[in-house]
Design brief:
The structure is a homotetramer. Chain A is of the alpha+beta class. Chain A contains 3 helices and 8 strands, in the order ααββββαββββ. The first copy, chain A, is globular. Chains in contact: A-B, A-C, A-D, B-C, B-D, C-D.
């Protein structure tokens, strides 16, 4: 069983682990054994267009990937390669921030599943994500 | 009908349009009416881990999104919001570069579909992507 | 606004509409404007193998499709073609029955989205589904 | 290495194995180590509506599942549970028959991947499918 302080330390390690996260700059909000919450503040460089303060879809997909990964890492204690990832874009993703909430759906012997909801600052669901992660022997896919 | 020079100009405009692409730095390789090819050189900041020169999965997902978007933009002449995106990670995505080849599968009245193959420098298939784009009245999803 | 009796009548009409449903034999359980519940009793002909009483994956996928379709039909009053469907198989799907609960996630001008959870008789989540449906001008895909 | 006669025998066994296939009645067309082709003749009971001779989407999804399964079974010699399945519906699926062509994309230690194209009698692409199958230790999902 993972206590909350240990889970939050693991989430922070997961965020600190990847050089790409220094470009995105996600912030750990909360973690327990089955749920992870990550915030992503808007910056102009994460934008879709010069004249609108909305996040680029590739940034949102990256946030989904990282949050799903993180909840699997927190739950299993290992870095599990992504097998596949699905991202449903429901609405534009506006500044000033997005909040991604990832939930572990099932942890199996060979793979784990996670669902992600991405909300805007007003709490509206802007994106849904779902992923499968290889928690077996570290095979990439 | 779109000639190749016009298609390549559209691809370049699509790449230049988004602030986020200045972080990723994709390069236009080729475009005609139904296929778009984009190259993404590796940089440390796009990496998954400090000790291995592999692209982060979120970067690969972003590349799939941008290449699929671009082929729809080239084919239809409009910027079409992503409805959903699926990304299958087959192998780790190594330096020094990835090449994404997006193909328009079907252009309908309300939405268009695109498939993407991402290859490494040795020509191995590392990731497959598939997306649906709203080519109707510009609804986000 | 759709009252519950009207919603349940629509669900029954949706089930009665398709010849294929006479093979599957799904049963309407419950419907309101945003949620539809359908039960599928096991029969040998829906099985995966001769020596085990489990539903075939194609049957489970068909149940996901029908439940998602139904919630969109109940919510919008129209028959909306499926754009795409994703099915995640978490566990084997055992006899004596499955219960599919479909939720409308978002109803847009061009598209609607639905999520489906399939539970076994003990209430365990065996399958998750997610679909996009064309609620625009009836384009098939 | 699998010879074609052995592959075709395996495909036939895979079709004969499931009680549900007696409802669908798919027919083996061709198999080698990496590609499987299956035909599905239309019958009224597989229909979407009483007044049009088109296949139900759940039937098409079932055909995608079975063809993808079959190519993995032929390639690996084992029955591999479906992890997840994605189905993109491009056009209505008309009588008198559908032909599904499944291709093994990658056979890994833990997972295998397959792509499926479903064509109508005129050779038009009506549906695309993509699936992940657990070729590890037989875990259901």
């Amino acid at each position: 069983v993972t206590g909350v302080p240990e889970a939050e330390a693991r989430l922070q390690r997961e965020i600190d682990r990847c050089p790409y996260h220094e470009l995105l700059r996600p912030e750990a909000v909360q973690a327990d054994g089955e749920v992870v919450v990550v915030r992503l503040p808007f910056r102009r460089e994460l934008g879709l267009a010069r004249d609108r303060d909305h996040f680029h879809g590739g940034v949102v997909a990256g946030l989904v990937d990282l949050a799903a990964h993180a909840v699997v890492a927190v739950a299993t204690g290992t870095v599990a390669p992504t097998v596949d990832l699905r991202v449903d874009f429901l609405r534009p993703a506006p500044a000033p921030e997005l909040v991604a909430r990832a939930t572990l759906i099932r942890q199996g012997r060979s793979f784990s599943r996670a669902d992600v909801e991405v909300l805007d600052h007003a709490g509206r669901l802007v994106t849904q994500g779902r992923g499968v992660f290889s928690t077996g022997r570290g095979e990439p896919g």
